[in-house]
């Protein structure tokens, strides 16, 4: 198992954002994390990536515990946060070289890796532009390239396709599918078709509680994934 979560609870002041959640994911899986706004998806991702601590529970990534080995956890993960924070004044290539440097890549190896990423995410034509000049879809590609530059075993993508146009959607999904072959991908989204298109499994959380964890095929029985989602989260 590359991600192991046991009895995870997060309470912000009085708000319980995660309530005793347990799940696991292994290499080669693309797991969709579904849930209404405020369900706790981003909170779970921030805990897995060591951005915030849980109130209680256990999280291990590639065998490393988030409390005992946070540096190893971080270097095992590529994370695309919900707001995709980027330095808008940097040029695309410059920003990737900067992030590669943070991961201790140097010299020719760094340059080679940056060019590989540019090609992989389809940024070749945009590589000499400032990030601030890119459309939303191309900014997401920069975010994805940054997340993958150190070739992490685990990718955590928080709503990576929100706000993209239909063509960009298809292309970003294609990149994620490609990545999922050899990594563990945890991806949150509101789009059911996206889960059907890229994920092998879905986890549904509602009010901080895990309410479903099953294959897309099983969750689609009785109509569609969307129908199951509505039934579970709204009771109709
Ligand atoms: P999702 O990503 O599924 O929309 P979040 O994990 O962002 O959900 O939020 C889960 C719940 O925790 C929400 O009720 C949200 O308002 C609350 N929450 C998130 N971050 C904080 C915070 N820093 N302080 C207080 N409450 C928070
Ligand atoms: Mg969120």
Kindly describe this structure.
By secondary structure, the chain is of the alpha/beta class. It is built from 9 helices and 10 strands. The chain has helices at 41-48, 70-76, 92-102, 107-120, 136-148, 166-180, 192-198, 216-219, 225-234; strands at residues 3-12, 15-25, 30-34, 56-61, 64-65, 77-80, 154-158, 184-188, 201-206, 209-215. Strands 6-7-8-3-9-10 form a 6-stranded mixed beta sheet, sandwiched between helices. A 4-stranded antiparallel beta sheet has the order 2-1-4-5, covered by helices on one side. A hairpin with a 2-residue loop joins strand 1 (3-12) and strand 2. Helix 4 crosses helix 5 (136-148). It is globular. 41% of the residues are buried. The mean pLDDT is 94. Bound molecules: adenosine-5'-diphosphate and magnesium ion. Adenosine-5'-diphosphate is lined by residues 12, 15, 17, 35, 37-43.
Keywords:
binds magnesium ion; six-stranded mixed beta sheet; 10 strands; alpha/beta; 236 residues; four-stranded antiparallel beta sheet
Strand content: 25-35%
**Helix-residue proportion:** 25-40%
Order of helices and strands: EEEHEEHEHHHEHEHEEHH
Spans of at least 5 consecutive residues whose pLDDT stays below 50 are none
Kindly report the spatial arrangement of strands forming the biggest sheet: 6-7-8-3-9-10
Biggest sheet descriptor: 6 strands, mixed
* H/I helix tally: 9
The geometry reads as globular
Bound molecules: adenosine-5'-diphosphate, magnesium ion
Helix/strand class: alpha/beta
Mean pLDDT: 94
Overall strand count: 10
If you compute it from the alpha carbons, what radius of gyration comes out, rounded to the nearest whole angstrom? 18 Å
> What separation lies between the terminal Cα atoms?
34 Å
């Amino acid at each position: 198992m590359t991600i192991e979560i046991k009895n995870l609870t997060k309470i912000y002041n009085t708000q319980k954002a995660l309530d005793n959640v347990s799940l696991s994911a292994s290499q080669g899986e693309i797991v969709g994390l579904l849930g209404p706004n405020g369900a706790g998806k981003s909170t779970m991702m921030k805990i897995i990536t060591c951005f915030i601590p849980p109130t209680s529970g256990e999280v291990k990534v590639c065998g490393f515990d988030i409390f005992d080995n946070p540096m190893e956890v971080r270097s095992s993960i590529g994370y695309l946060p919900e707001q995709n924070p980027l330095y808008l004044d940097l040029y695309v290539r410059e920003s990737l070289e900067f992030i590669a440097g943070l991961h201790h890549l140097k010299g020719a190896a760094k340059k080679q890796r940056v060019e590989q990423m540019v090609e992989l995410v389809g940024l070749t034509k945009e590589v000499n532009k400032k990030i601030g000049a890119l459309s939303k879809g191309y900014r997401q590609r920069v975010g994805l390239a940054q997340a993958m530059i150190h070739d992490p075993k685990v990718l955590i993508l928080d709503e990576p396709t929100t706000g993209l146009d239909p063509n960009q959607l298809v292309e970003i999904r294609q990149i994620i599918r490609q990545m999922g072959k050899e990594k563990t991908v945890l991806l949150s989204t509101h789009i059911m078709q996206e889960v059907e298109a890229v994920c092998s499994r879905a986890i549904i959380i509602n009010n901080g509680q895990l309410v479903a964890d099953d294959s897309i095929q099983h969750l689609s029985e009785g109509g569609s994934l969307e129908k199951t989602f509505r039934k579970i989260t709204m009771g109709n």
